[in-house]
Each structure stands twice: as structure tokens, then as C-alpha cells.
Amino acid sequence: MTQLIHKGEGHRKRLKDRFLKNGLQGFHDYEVIELLLSLNTPRKDCKQSAKLLLKRFKTFQRVLEASHESLCEIKGVGPSSSLGIRLIKQVSDRYLESKIISKDVVQNPRDLMEYLNQTIGHKTKEVFAGIFLDAKNRVLTCQILFTGTLTTSSVYPREVIISALQHNAAAVIFAHNHPSGDVEPSKSDIRITRQLLFALKYVGIVLHEHMIIGNNGAYSFAAQGLISKFNTEFEQTNY
Fold first, then answer.
1. For 125-146, what is each residue's pLDDT tens digit?
2. Which residue among 82, 147, 148, 239 has its CA within the 20 to 30 Å range from the CA of 3?
């Protein structure tokens, strides 16, 4: 019996051959998504579904961040394809986290920036993360501490201190995202950073950095001199 070949089979093979030869170099975002969909959709052209995903979620990164339910709302994207997309994102996150665990990210921050851009940089809601370090500034663990708009009522220094002590942290780096893409700190961001630095100081834990991550770049409290300023204020207050 002659095996039927669907009309997209040749196109799909060309995509796979391109990837095997050169990786994702030269791929459009919709082609990357199409390739992902094709892994769990063996007998169907996936190009249109890939384009519908980008139309709905606007960017490649937000397709990867989308919930299982919202992915399944797109025509041609079923539970298996949704699982594949979400699995790829989680595997990527874990890979990047493995690159920074036990590394000194204070002296070598590039891998940390890559990890933060991947894990929180494109989220549609604000999340506040803590990177806990040992006495040699090596990463012990990374943890999402709070979700939602940052205010003094949504970030609790007591919970931050408890998490730091539970991990035997000697130092901390904080990071949160701005879904708008504008990485300039708000007055609330500055106030919370100062409050957290003071709280951590009282239990002997150093705050090295607070970074704001957005799709237009990043803002470093340390590079802008704010961490040093708050440390000086603490010393003067407690002299």
C-alpha cells in the first residue's frame, strides 16, 4: 500500500535539515515554533498554528511563557504540543540555572544575566527573585520570592530573611522584572531595596545587587551607586 505524504512533509523536512546543519541560525521566530510543534504533530502542517501563536502572544518569548490553557486555545495546538512548548522552556531554564550554581556571579555576572533574562525578563507579571550566595559569592540557589507589582505591602523583608537563613546565605542578589520593558526604578523599587538592605544587614547578610530586568535591557542598583549609598546610610544610622 502506498503511504500518503501530507503536503507539508517536504517543508518540514527542509526545516529539520536546516536545523541539523546550522542550528537556529537564520530561522524566523514562527519557524522555531513550527519546528517545536512538528515534534508532537507528525501528520499535520504546523506553519499556520505557529503564526497564530505569535499573533496571539506577540513575541516568541511570550509564546514560551504562555499557560497550558491559553496555548490550547490556538487552533491546531493540542495538549501534546502545549506540553512540548512548556517543556522546552523549563528545560532551558534549568540548563541556565545549572550554569550559575556554585559559580561566583559577583565577579562573573554574564551567566547570571543570561539566566535572569530567560527566566523573568519576558514575564507579563512582575516577579521578585532572590539569588542566594555563600561566603565566596557562589550561587547556592535561585528562588522566586514574590509575584505581583512591587510595593512595600507585597515584598516582606521578614520572609526574605527567613529564606536567606534557610539557605545559609552569606549574601544575596535581588532581581525583578518590569513587563513594560522600561527598566528605570520606581520610587517604590528604590525604597524596597533600601529597606531590604537594612533588614539583611541586621542579620549579617550582604546585599550585593538589585537588578531590574526588561526586554529593553537591565538596570543595576550597584552600578548606579545606590547599594553603596544605602550601605553608608546604614553605617551612619547605626554608628
1. 899 999 999 999 999 999 999 8
2. 82
